[in-house]
Design a protein that fits this description.
Strand 3, helix 3 and strand 4 form a beta-alpha-beta unit. The relative contact order is 0.18. By secondary structure, this protein is α/β, with parallel strands linked by helices. The longest helix is centred in the middle third of the chain and has 18 residues. Strands 1, 2, 13, 14, 15, 16, 17, 18 and 19 form a 9-stranded mixed β-sheet that branches. The chain binds pyridoxal-5'-phosphate. The site of pyridoxal-5'-phosphate has 17 residues, from strand 10 and helix 10.
Length: 449
């Protein structure tokens, strides 16, 4: 293995190393103070294997909005997934990796005109809609588009509901929309839905697939021959979660309602692929001890510790506000024999809203100590801002040996990554534009020195 670039590398994990050991190495590097991520692309490859095993009929089209890091997109491109893009910008990013436009679905039912024009120019022809005005725009701007009607079917329990914004009623609205599409001679090719992100009710997929079948049948009466079912996102991706139950419901509903193998079934998973791949390390830069007086004894007691860390709700932890994510802090090192205190964790900005955790019991930690947050890959970095001048954490990429080809046999394996040139994005303080650096076709070994 050779080091192509000494500054930006994909760190290959051997059996002696792990994400946590890499974090330890980086945290203990001289003067390391900024918060940083470690992204394990091996975890993304593992997720893909799980997807292929559990949902063999369903072609994943990764939802770029969830985490648009170039390395993530390159890995998924290498694995052969399609992509769900929400805008012209996301389409361009995916196309720049050499992805064929036919592997992209423009899955935003309410698109600005210029974005539709762009889709027409670059040939991203599959797009969703859920309202009449969209049909008129498409008729004018991209009459050859292949349209997918998005219906609403909400999970009773989900981390983030989406139905209040998108999806027409499959019974009361879809038929009329399809009649209008027919009269405009628009090519409608299928049905999509999104049950809600972080779905906690597997059975909803059965209801949604059944409703989609009814829309397929109605479309037939208008002369349409639908050939695409898009079962959206909603699949959990944190450590300790599984898609087993959801997959069981989906597979059985597909057997019941869509037994015809010529119907293409796609999905738009986001958090499933990336959530557990990203681990965030934050540094404690300030501490306030809250002292209160005991009303009985009159003695002062240290009741609470306030820890200030260098990433907050304006940065990665925006996921607490926007994605209803529950984040769990874990001290990087062990604290044998140290007293524990009720504590709160705060972000670095001057806003009082910038609280990461209101109440948690932590050991007596010191300035310079590190707190680790796992499952931070979904809906974090793309939304983060450098508010107050605090930088967005840099991402260090690691991969385990098993996914990187070293022998010809490896190279022929379905899940081995080719030695693609990996690009790494470096977010800069005060500048939201990601700077792309073309680096390596891999590598370095096990540990950072
Ligand atoms: N597809 C669409 C249209 C979405 O809006 C979203 C998330 O908001 C996704 C897919 C990804 O959903 P998830 O991350 O729950 O898989």
């Amino acid at each position: 293995m050779k080091i192509i670039n000494s500054e930006e590398r994909v760190h290959i994990l051997d059996s002696q190393s792990s994400v946590w050991s890499v974090i330890n190495n980086i945290a203990n590097t001289n003067n390391q103070e900024d918060a940083f991520y470690v992204c394990d692309i091996g975890d993304i490859v593992r997720k893909h294997k799980i997807w292929k095993a559990k949902l063999p009929r369903v072609e994943p089209h990764y939802a770029v909005k969830c985490n648009d890091n170039l390395t993530v997109l390159e890995v998924l491109t290498a694995l052969g997934t399609g992509f769900d893009c929400a805008s012209k910008g996301e389409i361009n990013k995916v196309l720049s990796l050499g992805v064929d436009p036919s592997n992209i679905i423009f899955a935003n039912p309410a698109k600005p005109a210029s974005h539709i024009r762009h889709a027409a120019t670059v040939g991203v022809s599959t797009m969703t809609f859920d309202n009449e005005t969209e049909l008129h725009k498409v008729k004018k701007l991209y009459p050859d588009a292949k349209m997918v009607i998005r219906i609403r079917c909400d999970a009773t329990d989900a981390q983030c509901q989406l139905g209040m914004k998108f999806g027409c009623n499959p019974v009361t609205e879809a038929p009329e929309l399809l009649r209008i599409a027919r009269s405009l001679e628009i090519n409608v090719v299928g049905v999509s839905f999104h049950v809600g992100s972080g779905c906690r009710e597997p059975q909803v997929f059965s209801r949604a697939i059944s409703a989609a079948r009814d829309v397929f049948e109605y479309a037939k009466t208008l002369g349409y021959q639908f050939n695409l079912l898009d079962i959206g996102g909603g699949y959990p991706g944190d450590r300790g979660t599984s898609i087993d139950q959801i997959a069981e419901v989906i597979n059985s509903a597909l057997d019941d309602y869509f037994p015809d193998p010529s119907i293409q079934i796609i999905a738009e998973p986001g958090r499933f692929y990336v959530s557990s791949a990203y681990t965030l390390a934050c540094n404690i830069h300030s501490i306030r001890n809250v002292i209160e007086t005991d009303p009985v004894t009159g003695n002062t007691v240290n009741t609470h510790r306030m820890y200030y860390i260098n990433d907050g709700v304006y940065g990665s932890f925006n996921c607490i506000l926007y994605d209803h994510q529950v984040v769990v802090p874990q001290p990087l090192k062990e604290y044998p024999g140290v007293k524990y205190y009720p504590s709160s964790i705060w972000g670095p900005t001057c806003d009082g809203l910038d609280q990461v955790i209101e109440n948690v019991v932590l050991p007596d930690m010191k300035i310079g100590d590190w707190l680790i947050f796992e499952d931070m890959g979904a809906y974090t970095l793309p939304v983060a801002s450098p508010f107050n001048g605090f930088p967005i954490p840099k991402v260090h990429i690691v991969a385990d040996e098993s996914i990187w080809p070293s022998t010809n046999e490896d190279i022929n394996s379905e899940y081995c990554l080719p030695s693609l040139p990996i690009r790494i994005e470096i977010p800069r303080c005060g500048n939201n534009t990601m700077i792309e650096e073309y680096v390596l076709d891999y590598v370095d070994i096990a540990h950072m020195e």
